[in-house]
Each structure stands twice: as C-alpha cells, then as structure tokens.
# Entry
Amino acid sequence: MDHALARPAAQQPRWPDPGAVRRARAVLEGVAPVVGAEEVDRLRAQLAAVARGSAFLLQGGDCAETFSGTTERSLAGTVATLHRMASTLSGAGRLPVVKVGRIAGQYAKPRSAAVDARGLPTYRGDIVNGAEPTAEARVPDPARMLRAYVNSKAAVTAVRALIATGAAGAPGAPAPDGEVFTSHEALLLDYERAMVRVDARVPDRPKLYGSSGHFLWIGERTRQLDGAHLAFAELLSNPVGLKLGPSTTPEQAVEYVERLDPYGEPGRLTLIARMGSAQVRDVLAPIVEKVTASGHTVVWQCDPMHGNTVQSTSGFKTRHFDRIVAETEGFFEVHRALGTHPGGLHVELTGDDVTECLGGTPRITVPDLPHRYTTACDPRLNRSQSLELAVVVAELLHAGRRGRRP
Ligand code: PEP
Ligand code: MN
# Structure
C-alpha cells in the first residue's frame, strides 16, 4: 500500500504520539475482520443488479455514530426504519431493495474548519477525539481506534441478532431480504489501512478487502484525484462509493470512474450525488451523460442531505424537508430525461423522534429544533420524516417504471 501512503491525505488528525498510533495499528492488523469477504461479495453482486436497473439501493443512518449513543435500541430503531422504508420503496416487492446502514463503523468525520466556535480543535468523530467542549477531550487519541473496532464488531452482531429474531421489523431469520449491510466513510486512513485483509479464497488470485465494513465511501472533502483516499479505494475489492458535490466536472467524473472501476464491473462503484436542490438538475445531467458515454455502469445514488445544510436563525445546523424532497425530485428528473436508472437514496436518519430537520408532516419549526436535537454532527430525518421521504421516492420510482418499455 506504499503508493497510497505517499499521496497527500486530507482530513487526518495530528496524533500527538506516533508510537501510540503504531501500537494501535499493530493491534488492528491482527484482529478478526468486522465483516467477512463473502458478505462483501454478496453486497457487490446485489449492487450490480442496482447498477443494471433491476434493484434499488437504500442507505441510511447517523451522520456520526458515537460510542455511547450507539446502543442496541438505537440500532434497532435505525434498522426498523430502513426496513419500513424499504418495504415502501419496493412497491409490494416489485423491485428488490438493497439495504445498507450507515452503521457499525461510521465514527470518523471530515470537518470544514480546524477549530470550532469556542476556538477548540474540532470534533472529528469518536474514533479520533471526544465531542465534549474541552481541550483535553479534543486531543486525538489513537486508542479510540480500538474502541471503534470493538463497537463496530458488537454492532454487527447486534444487528444480525435483531434481524434474525425479527425484532427490528425484519421479515425474520430465513428471509435473505432482511439483510442490512454496513457502511461508513473511509476517512481515517490509519484505521482503514490497518483493517485491510487479504482474501485468499482463490489462492492464485488473492484480493484485498477493507474488513471494517461492507461498503466504504470517499467523502466530498477527500476525493482529490491525486490524494491518498482515492489511491486507497483503488486497492480494495469492496463496492465503493464516491460523494460528488456541485463543483464536480463531467471530465473529473469520468476520471473517477476510470480509476475506481477500471475493469468495468457493475456494482463496483456508486456515485453519490449531493449537489443541493438548486443545482442538481444543471450539474448532474452532464455528469451522468458523460459517465454513461464512457461505457461504465455505475450505481447512481442521490444524497439529498449534504447539499442542503443551512444554519437556522437560532444557530442550529438544519435541513428543510422540502429541499430534501426537491433535490430528490431533481435527481429523478435528470435520470428520467437521460434514460438512466435513479438507483439509490442515501440519507441521514434515525429511528428516534428527533427535531433536527425542519418541516415534513411533524411540521418541525425553528423553535422546535432544541427540543430533541441529539445528533453528534449533521441533522437527521426522524422516523416519520424518513417514512414520508420513502413514500415520495416510491412514487417517483414507480411512476417512472410504469413508463418503461419491458
Ligand atoms: C457525510 O456523509 O456525513 C458527509 C460528510 O458527506 P459529504 O462528504 O458528502 O459532505
Ligand atoms: Mn453528514
């Protein structure tokens, strides 16, 4: 992985004690994988169906999981919400829905600023430092990577048990339909590199896979074409995602696709558009056109959250449900016009009744925001807003499919 090490890596913590980082990495290099290679392959095969237009990808969960907040109850809430949304989206089973949680490892956060409003070093996710507003808590601590590993492993076990018992609204043990894969942003390279494993099931064709989660994505702030994150993602055989913000050019998009899907394998790459409701139509259409012309078959996924974040008058980071719907509609419009498959939805959500995003049927207003604003980072859709969005997307999806020739 030396070529990846040589590239500049954005958004990495400055660990104060390099020896402690080496020790933590050495431990992680020897632990059991959080997820197995055969499960990763299964997801990849399911995403190939999404890329080809015969399935839909639903991905959701916290912006930032926390060590103390990720309980069995919160996992059950997220999984149950994903299952409810999936059954709405599948249109009574006509379209299989692949379910991926932002769970069991979503612990590292990229930040726009190095210091927060108090002048303290910013919180970079529980895998790096603590959210408490003290200078001590904000010192990056590599031992947190070990806790992130243990918590991820425990979360995978908990999710599996919830699904097997039907406790989280899943169909129950024998139904493969209940499966929820895990995902997170592959941001913290000390952790992600240490979790790479060799899959030697085919002895003369060993492959590398990221064992920290089934699906790993590269964020908007770390997608530099000459950067370490792209170089890292190239090495993996996992299905990978790439967030694309409104500054992405069609030419860049084609470079990304050639780098991350060199063999032209549907299911390998998911392009996650997060353009903002005002820009999605103008910016996304030429990107989709050019990538399609390149001959690569990718999963096109809409993240209608991250381009629509605003500061409320009372100072809370929030998003308006109408804008989230508007970006989703724009995304579908672009794909309908080009005849491509609007393959997926990527949202920040929780099963809890939080007041973090404005609007929707609960009609959350600015004065409501402080009532139950519990996110560790970005504002999430609550359970009812999530289900409402699923209804909107189901209508867009099935209206389009009715119009399709068989
Ligand atoms: C996120 O998904 O939480 C995130 C930081 O997104 P983006 O990289 O698109 O800004
Ligand atoms: Mn976020």
Remarks:
- The first helix runs from residue 2 to 6.
- DSSP finds eleven helices and twelve strands in the chain.
